[in-house]
């Protein structure tokens, strides 16, 4: 359970600072903001309109995903578009909403390209980028890029080292991805002191490594008191290592019922629920230390526009 008075998180850039506040929960949306149920390929033609709608309604962030290949067994092609290209597009079409990626699969990309693309999106958006990173969970993608699935944990660590180095005033790094030394440099630099990196799940790393090297943590929904215990372990690890508090993000698939009192019923990685039980659940998450919830409306059975309006009217005022 959170302390009554929580110290502030580190200030990194505009997107990170407005999305994550210690002791508070904010609400965002996973892109595409669309219904596509069991169809792995979403319809994207209305997505820009809905991202703008989300910004106008007061949602704090939108979250893209990195899905290089459509893997049929996984059943989800993400937002189809390359995340960095789409981030640049959204940066020019929005003003205030944070632009997040949950998450870039680092072992499948050279970290120089990640660092360059992410810093570019950060600058073009005026410091609104939040970069989630992961080691990847689709083995089928690795042979397509001649990458080794079994060594992705080590590749993930070296990629983080490389990306961090590229954001420094004087870039210097040497590992299996390459060597960079002065006078060679990478531009642009991120808007803030660094790119805000949120590590997804374990990414094949120890809790201690994640606490020391990430700016926050993305974790998955858990039933009962399990999430409370996991988040307490996260805070204990940070404290034991002398780290300042760092935020936690949780995704949630949501099917918002017409009846505001409908009892929650389970769906994939989330639930169908009325507004009032949903609000109570989100208040519980806030109480145990979740700082941002990324709602995924893929399995929504109600029209998306109406669902966004209802969330904005009845849920966002409680949190955002």
Unreliable stretches, pLDDT < 50, 5 or more residues? none
Mean pLDDT: 96
Task: Figure out the total of helices.
Answer: 11
* Number of self-contained structural domains: 1
Q: Helicity, in percent?
A: 25-40%
Give the CATH superfamily: Luciferase-like domain
- The run of helices and strands is HEHEHEHEHHEEEHEHEEEHEHH
Shape: globular
Radius of gyration (Å): 19 Å
CATH architecture: Alpha-Beta Barrel
CATH-defined topology:
TIM Barrel
Helix-strand makeup class? alpha/beta
**What's the CATH class label?**
Alpha Beta
**Termini, distance in Å?**
20 Å
Q: How large is the share of residues in beta strands? A: 15-25%
Largest beta-sheet characterization: 8 strands, parallel, barrel
